[in-house]
Sequence to fold (421 residues):
Amino acid sequence: MVRKLGEKALDPYENAVMQLKKAVNVLGLDDEAFEALKTHERVIQVKIPVRMDDGKTRIFIGWRAQHNSALGPYKGGVRYHPETDMSEVMALSMWMTWKCSLLQLPFGGGKGGVRVDPRRLSFREIEALSRGYFAAISRFVGEDLDIPAPDVYTNPQTMAWYIDEYYRIIGHNIFGVVTGKPQQLGGLGTRIVATGFGVAAIAREAANKMLGGIEGKRVAVQGFGNVGSYAAYYLSNWGAKVVAVSDSSGGIYDPKGLRIDEVMRVKSEKGKVIEYPDAKRISNEELLTLDVDILIPAALENVITIDNAPKIKAKLIVEGANGPTTPEADDILFKRGIFVVPDILANAGGVTASWIEWVNNRTGGWITDDEAMRKLEEKMITAFRTLYSYMNRRSDIDPRTAAQAVAVERVYNAMKLRGWI
Ligand code: GLU
Fold:
């Protein structure tokens, strides 16, 4: 998505392949296995004509990338973003394969995207676009085939249009074809907080192990959407001091700690965190190198690069976003002794809640919100402990490569059992 001077590869797909190569080397797998693990099973590009409010028809382009289904149906969100492209969607779907595997969910990896700036569309235009996109990919999704969910700039309302469009096309209600739905349409009450809650739970667990606890630790969160806002909310409830947050219009900093419920109110009423009074304005770039204990990048890809990695002061980075750290930056951070909890673990709360929702849909709506939250926390903590004990045995490899090695090995074994390799 973002290319910067001075770095070899900032294309998300190239990054994802470089990361996979490292994991394959750790596992001692050969080139044949690397090729089989790397290659997508299917990538679909669709054309979405939308009748706009002014009466003109505009053409949008969307994708659905299906990376690997050895462990189960493809699973992953759909993002609406003006800079999304096929390479990004392919990278994100590969990361979903590793994420679902690491969390031991019965899913493979998929991801979708539409190249659009939804902030410039009316509500009706977004509905038409969403229905058009889902109709275009409808033959390639299904509750046992590919299960989309929300991602950047998509939400439960988008999912409601998706399942309704599916209902129109196939003629009966299948709630399990999409997750992250509104509660009235088979969603979980807790799905909306799940990713942010998971990020916070992992940050707390990592802080307990590495920083002597979460209480009083200074936290900076880049991105104040669904993931960043709830991560900040839970961490401040658990006694951490969230000193800085930001969104696409800029950031705010108060070394004494921000009142997160107030920031949330300001963000929902005025749309920007910088409207919060009594805090110093900072840029998104400044936020990354603040003097804090924990840094949570929860916006987009490629924000931690070789340019700023040497200046980062946090001791712990918990990746709320997908792909926020480039491979070169990863090497620098590892050498500097900064622990990066990788995206495929840190932000897996969303897809884990999606799995609970999908199971619940298929059993007729059984689970309570409390049970769903407990199950989510248990899954996240178990995955963190698996990674942490692996790291204790292999201190020569960075946490991302360790997490990917655990995940890739499971996918590889499933492919072998199926006779794909
Ligand atoms: N978009 C989220 C992710 O990147 C959630 C995907 C899902 O729930 O399927 O993990």
